[in-house]
Amino acid sequence: MAALSGGEPSFVNATHSPETDLVPLSHLCDMPGTVFRRGDRLALRTVEHEDAEFIQRGHNHPDVGVTLGLNRPESETEAEANIEDDEGDPLNVGLLVCLEDGDEPTPIGKVRLSNLHHTRPEISYWILPEYQGEGYGTEAVGVLVDYAFNAHEIRGLQAQAFAPNEGSVGVLENLGFTHEGQLRDARFRNGEHVDVVWYGLLREEWEDD
Amino acid sequence: MPGPIVEAGDDLVLRTVEREDAEFVQRLFADPWARVGFQEHGHKNHAEVEELLEGDLEERDTAAYLACVDDDDAPWGHPEEDETTPVAFVAVTHVDRDRPGVNHWVAPAFRGEGYGVEALSLAVDTVLRTYDPNTIGVEVVAGDEATREHVEAVGFVEEGRNREVLFVEGEYRDVYQYGLLHEEWEGR
Questions:
Q1: pLDDT digit string (tens) for B51-84?
Q2: Number of domains within chain A
Q3: CB contact under 8 A, A119 and B167
Q4: Domain containing A143 — which CATH number?
Q5: Min distance B130 CA to chain A CA atoms (Å)
Q6: pTM of the model
Q7: Which CATH architecture has domain B5-186?
């Protein structure tokens, strides 16, 4: 809900652009935290203070940050502070998405569950551009949705994205989310006003799937 | 008592909300339909409402108004208790962003007089003229038909329906999303 909540927007990652002139970030990172939930190819791992550099680089990447609704640079100190804020907050769950195909896990993105006290908490996520198009977003968010419904007494989940946002909306539609609305010209990003699309998933729609 | 007039209409004026208006605003939180728009599922006591007035409602990006029926001789500035009657409360959040959100509530004793539509309309007018947002959004809980009528009468367009997103009066309720573009307001 908007109104007096005052939280920053947490838009899901929308772009689907494979090209990037940045180097892969994974090898720059320290060892991620412990496994919390596992998928077939991926694991969701706890976010550790050492992951601030990885998250910061993701958030500052134009193809990630803009689609998340971030409109200013994030310093490493800010990234660390955000991680610490989440640690003390029982209403938000952030997890690192890691590819588990080698000796060491490779962080490729992040998923987040926010406002767990709401009837329908919100999910958001991003995958580094160079790892998009492989179904990693769908797998990671699927594991997160499973966890959300199994661990929390929630009625449903919701997600928002900027339109057009084929990559991100594709993830939601793959997982059975229903398109619930399109808020016209609701956000300014990339030099223009864009629509915000809303998706929702109710518990029985997930369990019956 | 509310403070100076910031917007004047035919039957209502919008005045600033002062801290001593806590008692009026507190009644809103006894209304199960109105309070959910303010992110509250339960009631608030007087002290909690005072805290809200001094906290969130005095934030830079929040604009709150008391819609009042003024006596003919009510001053522009600070009216006495017998010179004006607050009938509705309007709060607009995130006025400095792309899409502020509006919540309004008409006190039960003053419903059915057209005050809801006029208060909302005055608030939209003053927000669009003062802060220059691109659009304004309103959320309406399914079942709150009076609010829905006000919102549609002002010209907001239904843009979506979030299913079972709030628990109100014993049921999970849908929430309708309404939006109004600046250009739609100008061209009305």
A1: 999 998 999 999 999 999 999 999 999 999 999 9
A2: 1
A3: yes
A4: 3.40.630.30
A5: 18
A6: 0.87
A7: 3-Layer(aba) Sandwich (3.40)
